Automatic annotation (TrEMBL):
Domain ABC transporter: 5-235
Annotated NCBIfam families: CP_lyasePhnL
Family: Belongs to the ABC transporter superfamily.
Cited PROSITE patterns: ABC_TRANSPORTER_1 (PS00211), ABC_TRANSPORTER_2 (PS50893)
SUPFAM superfamilies the UniProt entry points to: P-loop containing nucleoside triphosphate hydrolases (SSF52540)
One Gene Ontology MF term: lyase activity
Protein name as catalogued: Phosphonate C-P lyase system protein PhnL
Keywords, comma-separated and alphabetical: ATP-binding, Lyase, Nucleotide-binding
Coiled coil: none
Length: 235
């Protein structure tokens, strides 16, 4: 099967403008592919650059070198050089992202935060709210919390709202940054099942999972980020 996303020659160097422009090379010449129906997992020690790769794939971090080719609206688009408007369109339709922490918006209820991506894509508000409720029930978020803004929720409750929001749309590519880090065993198992269903539906997933049990349960491929270390490439 043709890959859904192809990373080639990807490089990232942070420039610390407030520290006299010190350069911090983090990733060099990274290359891998994502395929539909498979979950790839980024491996490697803390600080190796796993989150930085996810953030480049979602367009949060600028790419210094290389390309990120993605199948979007039936065409191959290079995310690394795409215009901001195209990146936003790709996020709406093609790439979903569950970040480590929920970005809470004041006064917006948990249910609306989860439903929002569906509403943005034109689904009727009530239908989107029903689907959001189904996901929140499945993730065991008590119904009494649904109408409240998540600012005061526990870490695990906020993480479950974030997961429901990331999973509500059928994006063909889904990026997961430690989605189970704050969850108990019951909810970790729910997320493992939800990932398996995404695979069944043909979604290409890329995630970071520090929990070994979760990683073993979901991973089809491990991408070892230490192979993309800049000093290794220079040696
Ligand atoms: N915005 C940034 N500005 C400067 N340096 C950064 C930035 N983001 C990440 N880094 C640096 O890049 C390196 C890789 O960080 P990253 O968060 O990608 O690693 P990681 O493999 O995901 O680590 P962990 O497993 O601890 O989450 C680290 O040395 C970090 O300090």
């Amino acid at each position: 099967m043709a890959p859904v996303l192809t990373v080639s020659g990807l490089g990232k160097t942070f420039i610390m403008h407030l520290r006299g422009g010190i350069e911090l090379p983090v990733i060099a010449d990274a290359a891998f592919v994502l395929e539909g129906g498979k979950c790839a997992v980024l491996g490697g020690p803390s600080g190796a650059g796993k989150s930085s790769i996810l953030k480049m794939l979602y367009g949060n971090y600028a790419v210094n070198e290389g390309g990120i080719e993605i199948l979007h609206r039936g065409q191959i688009v290079d995310l690394a050089s795409a215009a901001p408007r195209t990146v936003l369109e790709i996020r709406r339709e093609t790439i979903g992202y569950v970040s480590q922490f929920l970005r809470v918006v004041p006064r917006v209820s948990a249910l609306d935060i989860v439903a929002e991506p569906m509403v943005e894509r034109g689904t009727d508000r009530r239908k989107a709210a029903d689907r959001a409720g189904e996901l929140l029930s499945r993730l065991n978020l008590p119904e009494r919390l649904w109408a409240l803004p998540p600012a005061t929720f526990s870490g695990g409750e906020q993480q479950r709202v974030n997961i429901a929001r990331g999973f509500i749309i059928g994006h063909p590519v889904l990026l997961l940054d430690e989605p189970t880090a704050s969850l108990d065993a019951t909810n970790r198992a729910v997320v493992v099942d939800m990932i398996a269903e995404k695979k069944q539906a043909g979604v290409a997933l890329l995630g970071i999972f520090h929990d070994t049990d979760v990683r073993n349960a979901v991973a089809d491929v491990i991408i070892d980020v230490t192979g993309f270390a800049p000093d290794k490439k220079a040696a």
